[in-house]
Amino acid sequence: MYKFIADNVVVFDVEWVPDPASGRRIYKLPETASDAEVLEVMWREGGATPEDPRPYLKTVMCRIVSIAAVVRKKVRGDVRLELISLPGLHDGVQPEGKIIRQFLEAVGNLGAQLVGFNSSNADLPILFQRALANRVTAPTFCHRPDKPWEGADYFARYSDFNIDLKNEVGGYGKASSSLHELATSLGIPGKMGTDGSNVVDLWRFGDIRKIVEYNQHDALSTYLVWLRTAYFSGRLTDDAFVREEQLLESLLNQEIGDGSEHLGLYLDAWKALRQ
Q: What 3-state class would DSSP assign to 84?
């Protein structure tokens, strides 16, 4: 378990879809092949079966469409929370390189403790791969201090500035759990009508808002799992843990008041599970 909670913590989740442009290059398909045709080749080559017609593809064959995060900042002893998403709920489709650059720059500038679920094997590799593909530069994120105590290091194998909750508590082999399984077992909302297999269809139909909403739900659930680990490890006292959950509930109510109706569904599900 990690040794400390940094003043700035970013608990994040990334959504991606198969990238037809990469598929055409990897499988040497003609430019005249439609995106739908390319996707079918990518899934077939990726091991599709009648039971699993859309297998999980290597991240190098995909493109990022959304990043969401709960940002926790401790300022003079006070904890403040913010829910961010790239793109925003009302932004529509944004260039992939812009999404990646903004996220990595923000994390690097904050020197934040980065927290994800299965982030070591999935979210971070695709961020790095697609940053390279889009010619993104992120020097503040990539800076590596000479000594561990001199700042954040997101590339050190056992750095407490890069926490993968799946590695901490998710288990291995047959014991391995998904975020949905772990969260719901803890009384935290899991998937709510949409899951990762639906994202590609939402993308193809241009429903980027639905993807962002789903992305935010996963970021919130990851944050609540992280809070539970912080409490378990003694980084939060009983009273502090209760206050942290209340802070998140206040943030959700504020976002709901600003028109984020999907967060009302999340809050209702969370309250029901806590009862």
A: strand
- 62-75 vs 8-18, strand pairing mode: antiparallel
10, 107 Cβ separation under 8 angstroms: yes
CATH number for the region 8-274 comes to 3.30.420.10
Rounded to an integer, what is the distance from CA 187 to the centroid of its chain? 20
Q: Model confidence over 93-135: pLDDT tens digits?
A: 999 999 999 999 999 999 999 999 999 999 999 999 999 999 9
Answering whether pTM is above 0.85, one says yes
Chain-centroid distance, C-alpha 242: 24
pLDDT of residue 157: 80
CA distance 189 to 274: 10
For residue 181, what are its two tokens? 């399984």
Paired with 12 in beta bridges are 69
In the chain the first and final C-alpha atoms are separated, in Å, by 28
For the residues 37-62, what does the mean pLDDT come to?
Answer: 96
